[in-house]
Amino acid sequence: MADAPMRGGARGHGGHGGEVVWRGAPAAATVDPMLAATALLAYLALAIGGLGLGEPVGSARSLLAPAWLAVLAAYLYLMRRWPVGLPAAALLAALAAFLIVQSARSEVPALALAKVDGFLVAGPIVFLTWRYGMEEFGPRFLRGVVRAGLLVLFITLLHKAAFGLTDRGTRYFLNGPIVFGWMMALMAMLALRLACEGPPGGRRRAALAVAAFAAAVVWSGSKGPMVALVLAGALFLLLERRIGSILFLLAALLAGGFAAAEYGVLPERLTAIYRIATMSLEGRDFGSVGVRALMLEDAALLFGSHPWFGVGSGNWVVHSSIATHAGPATYPHNLVAETLAEHGLAGLAVFGAVVAYVAWRCDRFGLAVLVLSGTGLLFSGDMQYWRFLVFLPLALCVRGARGSRP
């Protein structure tokens, strides 16, 4: 039986230089409630993540657990098939088995469980909501997620205006500043794709959305999402052969960034990027830059003493000499350092195989999102946020008509 056509009507991009066509009728002008709900759920699944495992009973995340389980079951039913192919299923099963063993070694079981929750429990929910949206609605889904992102940004502005617009210690509505920065960077990438592919009128609106989301990344005061957005955006434009756009982007960033730093209008935390670039770090940079260098050094020492399987999931905070001097840090703020310190060479091989498979399956935009997530996780975020690195790019890899599986 032939694959059912997708609802949508624009072209996507296939991996390895090929092109994917999302087939179907042109998008309708009326609002599609299922599309809007799926787009909002996709944003929330990625931003919130997990069922609250490892957290105290009654936490906000744990109270939402029944709803997320219902979402998982609903989208499995809507897809009416197993959503991944045998290679992906085998790799993810091996990864899950490895993490179960590593979590059993943990001296901080709640932390190890929280990592598994954010990665391997939240990950499938992220995958199903995003994958269903991509297959069912095509490029309309991406526009829906961008609209959901704009809605969340608007509510976040209202929330911060009431409780501390420039206070980074005040939550950015759903998330802290780092994850908010990641989400805004991802929304900017989605809008950038729409700006490259949509009709002229839609491209102008998408370009304005890119600017709004990029400004939100700067507002978060998080260096990782900013660097990640620049690299991923440049990569996507390069893969799209938009060299002029890349040169304009880089020139605008350099001129604007250095001018803002010189005149003191950048958020204080982001001026560290300027001081790193000009080799003029100061004592005030220790809490942002210096402490990370010590964390990496500590992770290297732990890897050296436990090279094969690391110290076990969540145990960096127990064995690290710097953890007690780094505030509430429970991880080394770098995905490679965390992998080597807690999981050793075995973990590097398992995780590396999964990421390599995802990269192989990705189309051009998926590769850019992989770079976005990977770069962000080099600055901060522990395993529970690896759903950004594995399940999100995998969900975006729509290679053809409905029914294709990664």
Query: How many extended strands?
Result: 2
Number of domains: 1
Radius of gyration: 21 Å
Strand content: under 5%
Q: Low-confidence spans: pLDDT under 50, at least 5 residues? A: 1-28
Q: Helix and strand succession?
A: EEHHHHHHHHHHHHHHHH
The coarse overall form would be: globular
What strand order characterises the main sheet?
Answer: 1-2
What structural category arises from helix and sheet content?
mainly alpha
Mean pLDDT across every amino acid position: 84
- The count of helical stretches stands at 16
Major sheet size, sense and barrel closure: 2 strands, antiparallel
Pfam families: Wzy_C
Subcellular location: Membrane
Protein name: O-antigen ligase
Membrane topology: Multi-pass membrane protein
